[in-house]
Amino acid sequence: MSHVFPRHTHKPPPTAVRGAGCYLYDADGKAYLDGSGGAAVSCLGHGDAEIIAAVQEQTAQLAFAHTGFFTSDPAEELADLLAEHAPGDLNRVYFVSGGSEATEAALKLARQYFVETGQPQRRHVIARQQSYHGNTLGALAAGGNAWRRAQFAPLLMDVHHIAPCYEYMLRAEDESAEAYGLRAAQELEDTILRLGPDSVMAFMAEPVVGATLGAVPAVDGYFKRIREICDTYGVLLILDEVMCGMGRTGHLFACEADGVTPDILCIAKGLGAGYQPIGAMLCTGAIYDAIKDGSGFFQHGHTYLGHPVATAAGRAVVRKLLRDDLVARAAWQGDRLSAALTERLGQHPHVGDLRGRGMFQGIELVQDREIKQPFAPEHGLAGKVKAAAFEAGLICYPMSGTRDGKNGDHVLLAPPFIISDAEIDELVDKLSGAIDHAIGSAAG
Ligand code: PMP
């Protein structure tokens, strides 16, 4: 009997024993092409000798020094690298151990900033429906995924959710993309005005929505308008790039493509590329200075903040991304992946939409393309695609939408940036087979 408490208690998973390049291998020797980098984590693939060496060297040199007493070279140097390459004046970096810790810290920093700058009445957070910001209570409250929240709702703080910018389902037929973006952003202003502008502390959003919608970027102009609205009312803009950041979309930071700089930016996943658990929250010098000139102490912390081995892994990952031009590779190999998906699935009767940026692509499955009607939830289509793909030796990330705001089933792809042309072909082959198999069994 296994004593591990697995995610799905009714179906224990196979044992993964080895990773190499874009593949994982289980104890029976079966190979799985990692088409989703787990969950948008393994941007460099598996078994990267350079990152492994960096982790080994740091472990031998200094495995741990508590940040209550010390800083460390890898933490300092990784922060320098991130600050140098981050947009605008996001020049202070707070290291944590993962995505939920990053978004949780961002919410607390926003609150402390207003307390320390004499605006303690600012307490409301606005976020978006069909978003995911993590599973700890604050992050879960900010997220707008009804299914994940349902049983914990009584424990969650009150967050106000507006609609996401989700062109495929929410743009009206006679509306231009630009007009739709402005309409979607207007919901933020309306909500701020309804709550009282002086009472809102932050708006949180993913620049490209990952798990919950499936690689959905905003239309051009949406985030620029969001930035303007936040500035008008003194609301902090928190962007969650836990999934879409660190080069995945073909920009080191996804918000660069939208031409905006947030006040606080959250990253994780690709930062450690799976070699170490690490996340980070970047904030502007202005926010940092408010804390420095106030109490001088961010009232937040975890034992493993700025962990030397985790930051050494992050430092090696970022150095490699930059030195080997892997962000540009994510952009052009992403275009190739997108073209291969369009060629194979563009006319598929149950593929409603193909979208994404770089190595972050989404496929939306619908029962009826004409009217964009999702499959009924009882089909459990996403789960069937996942199972059929896994059986065929492909790891992809399908999710069933919660049907709030109409979204149905989608598949998220987030392969390693090093994926080859032949591996892209294998991915698309196996995925389209799995989709057909799953739809066949959903219909039957
Ligand atoms: N934010 C986003 C956008 C995510 O996709 C995730 C994880 N899927 C998280 C936050 C939470 O990250 P973690 O699972 O590392 O806590």
UniProtKB/TrEMBL annotation:
Cofactor(s) demanded: pyridoxal 5'-phosphate
Listed GO MF terms: pyridoxal phosphate binding; transaminase activity
GO cellular component, one term: cytosol
Keyword Ligase assigned: no
Domain of life: Bacteria
Keywords in alphabetical order: Aminotransferase, Pyridoxal phosphate, Transferase
Family: Belongs to the class-III pyridoxal-phosphate-dependent aminotransferase family.
Protein name: Aspartate aminotransferase family protein
Taxonomic source organism: Aliishimia ponticola
Lineage: Bacteria, Pseudomonadati, Pseudomonadota, Alphaproteobacteria, Rhodobacterales
